[in-house]
């Protein structure tokens, strides 16, 4: 693989790992439900993997919008001479914008999810630190609810990476990005869930990192864009 593919591959793996490992909502509900319902390790793993693929599916839908836009640009004749520089600059600009967005989100009191155990049931709710949540706003967590939570929570930084490959009309890069992003996301979810289920959750303190997930993801895309534009990756 050339340096461009390696750069995109490392970016996709970094973003998917950070996005997954930094958010307790990617694994904590599975751990809590598994323990409260006394599920087997196999049942817990299957639900985790199914929800992981649902999460990847929604992310890839957004990502393939980027591929589609890139391919449409390739149909414009005057764009052929610009596409190399344009795609790199687009990656760099998007990364910078997402980095700034991540900083704003980190500074603000952004609402976040919480999971509560009440008897044998688990409930999910969203709030910020200054807000009280009434009991009726809590939603009982079932396997279907968990699946829907993950489907509705895509990873946006995948869009510029696939857009870049779409502009270049590179199917090999698209396949590498999709496979690496999918495997990293699902395996990270599964690993975190199994570690937590068997008592190793104290090794991880990801709640503070979650706040800066947008910053780190934006920084990864920005570095990748800098490499494409200025370093000839």
From TrEMBL:
<feature type="transmembrane region" description="Helical">
    <location>
        <begin position="6"/>
        <end position="24"/>
    </location>
</feature>
<feature type="transmembrane region" description="Helical">
    <location>
        <begin position="144"/>
        <end position="163"/>
    </location>
</feature>
<feature type="transmembrane region" description="Helical">
    <location>
        <begin position="45"/>
        <end position="71"/>
    </location>
</feature>
<protein>
    <recommendedName>
        <fullName>Urease accessory protein UreH-like transmembrane domain-containing protein</fullName>
    </recommendedName>
</protein>
<feature type="transmembrane region" description="Helical">
    <location>
        <begin position="212"/>
        <end position="231"/>
    </location>
</feature>
<keyword id="KW-1133">Transmembrane helix</keyword>
<feature type="transmembrane region" description="Helical">
    <location>
        <begin position="175"/>
        <end position="200"/>
    </location>
</feature>
<keyword id="KW-0472">Membrane</keyword>
<feature type="transmembrane region" description="Helical">
    <location>
        <begin position="86"/>
        <end position="104"/>
    </location>
</feature>
<keyword id="KW-0812">Transmembrane</keyword>
């Amino acid at each position: 693989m050339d340096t461009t593919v390696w750069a995109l591959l490392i970016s996709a793996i970094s973003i998917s790992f950070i996005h997954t490992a930094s958010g307790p909502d990617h694994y904590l509900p599975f751990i809590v439900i598994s323990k409260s319902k006394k599920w087997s390790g196999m049942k817990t793993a299957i639900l985790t993997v199914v929800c992981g693929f649902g999460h990847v599916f929604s992310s890839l839908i957004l990502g393939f919008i980027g591929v589609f836009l890139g391919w449409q640009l390739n149909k414009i004749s005057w764009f052929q001479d610009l596409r190399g520089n344009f795609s790199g600059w687009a990656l760099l600009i998007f990364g910078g914008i997402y980095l700034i967005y991540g900083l704003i989100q980190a500074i603000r009191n952004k609402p976040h999810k919480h999971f509560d155990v009440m008897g044998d049931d688990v409930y999910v709710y969203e709030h910020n630190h200054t807000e009280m949540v009434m009991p009726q706003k809590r939603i009982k967590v079932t396997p279907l609810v968990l699946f829907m939570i993950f489907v509705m929570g895509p990873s946006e930084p995948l869009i510029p990476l696939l857009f870049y490959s779409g502009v270049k009309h590179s199917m090999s890069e698209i396949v590498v990005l999709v496979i690496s992003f999918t495997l990293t996301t699902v395996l990270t979810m599964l690993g975190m869930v199994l570690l937590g289920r068997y008592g190793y959750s104290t090794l991880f303190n990801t709640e503070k990192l979650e706040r800066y997930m947008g910053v780190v993801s934006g920084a990864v895309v920005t570095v990748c864009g800098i490499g494409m534009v200025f370093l000839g990756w």
